[in-house]
Amino acid sequence: MSYLEDLFSLAGRTAVVTGGSSGIGRGIATALARAGARVVLVARGREALDDTVRELTDLGCEATAVVGDLATRAGAQAAADDAAQPYGEPDVVVSSAGINLRPPMADVDAAVWDATMTVNLEAPFWFGQRFGPGMAGRGYGPLVHVSSQQAHRAFVTSSVYGVSKGGLESLARSQAEAWSPHGVTANTLVPGFVLTPLNQRLQQDPARVAALADRTLVGRNGVPADFAGAAVFLAGPASGYVTGQSIHVDGGFSVH
Ligand SMILES: NC(=O)c1ccc[n+]([C@@H]2O[C@H](COP(=O)([O-])OP(=O)(O)OC[C@H]3O[C@@H](n4cnc5c(N)ncnc54)[C@H](OP(=O)(O)O)[C@@H]3O)[C@@H](O)[C@H]2O)c1
C-alpha cells in the first residue's frame, strides 16, 4: 500500500451515511465511496436515494440505500438495524440527516421540539448505541456527526435547532469518552453556511447570501464538496488520534 493509501484509503470499509441523499450528506457519501468504502445511504425519500445510488454506481463505487424515518425514536432504531442489513455491521457511521424548522422561540411547540431533537440529536445517539459497542469490540469505528455553527452562536432563529446541535457536539464527546479507549473516534464537522436544499428559502435573498459569503475569510459560501477531505480524514486511519473534536469546515466563518 502507498503512504497515502495507508493514511486515507477506505477500501474494504463499510460506511452508513444518514441524510446521504442530499446536500452535505450526499457530498460526504460521495467522498467516502470514492475513497473506497461501500456506502449505505439512509433517508426518507426513495427517489433522491435512488438518484444518489445511481450517481455513485456510475462513478464505479459500491452503494445502496435504506429508507428510514429518523423523526421518531422507533424509526431511528429501526433505521439503524436496517442500515446494517445490506453489507453487515458498518465500520464508519456518519450522521448528517438534519432539519431546521425555524419558528421563532416563542412559537416552538412540542411537535417542533420533538421533531428537531429526534432527527438532529436522538437519532445520532441511537445510531451510536447500535454501532458503538460493536466498533469498540472490533477496535475501529469512526462516528462522524454534522453539527452547525448554531451550536456555538445564535443565528437566524436558531431556537431549538441550535439547542439540538449543541447537544450533538456534547454527544460526540461522550461517545469519545466511552469508546475511544477501544479504537473508536467520535468527532463533529461544523459547517457554516452551505448552499443546500436545507436553506433554500434563505437563498432566495441574494443580498443575504452575499453578506454571508463576506462573513467568511475565504470569501464564498460552502458547497457539499467542501466536506469531502475532512470527511475522508475523519473516517479513515489518519485521524485515529483525533477524537471528541468539533472541526469547523466553514471558510473561516466562525473566526471572523
Ligand atoms: N446547509 C447548511 O448551511 C448547514 C449549516 C450547518 C449545518 N448543517 C447541517 O448539515 C446536515 C445536512 O444538511 P444539508 O444542508 O445537507 O440538508 P439537506 O440538503 O436538506 O439534506 C438533509 C438530509 O437529511 C435527510 N432527512 C431529513 N429528515 C429526515 C428524517 N426524518 N429521516 C431520515 N432522513 C431525513 C434528507 O432526506 P429526506 O428528506 O428524503 O428524508 C436529506 O438526505 C444537517 O444536519 C444540517 O443541520 C447544514
What does this structure look like?
With 256 residues, the protein is α/β, with parallel strands linked by helices. The protein has a single domain, classed as NAD(P)-binding Rossmann-like Domain (Rossmann fold). The protein has nine helices and seven strands; from the N terminus they run αβαβαβαβαβαβαααβ. The protein has helices spanning 3-8, 23-34, 46-58, 73-83, 110-138, 159-179, 200-203, 206-215, 228-235; strands at 14-18, 38-43, 63-67, 92-95, 141-146, 184-191, 246-249. Strands 3-2-1-4-5-6-7 form a seven-stranded parallel β-sheet, with helices on both faces. α4 packs parallel to α5 (110-138). The N and C termini lie far apart (41 Å). Bound molecules: NADP nicotinamide-adenine-dinucleotide phosphate (NAP). The site of NADP nicotinamide-adenine-dinucleotide phosphate has 29 residues, from α2.
Bound molecules: NADP nicotinamide-adenine-dinucleotide phosphate
Question: How helical, in percent, are the residues?
Answer: 40-55%
Question: Which fold name corresponds to the CATH topology?
Answer: Rossmann fold
Question: What would CATH call the class?
Answer: Alpha Beta
Mean pLDDT, rounded to whole units? 96
Number of domains: 1
Q: Which structural class is indicated by helix and strand composition? A: alpha/beta
> Helix tally?
9
User: End-to-end span in angstroms?
Assistant: 41 Å
The topology string of helices and strands comes to HEHEHEHEHEHEHHHE
> Spatial order of the strands in the main sheet?
3-2-1-4-5-6-7
Reported for the largest beta sheet, the result is:
7 strands, parallel
* Shape summary: globular
Architecture, CATH level 2? 3-Layer(aba) Sandwich
CATH superfamily: NAD(P)-binding Rossmann-like Domain
Radius of gyration: 17 Å
How many E-type strands? 7
The low-confidence parts are: none
Strand content: 5-15%
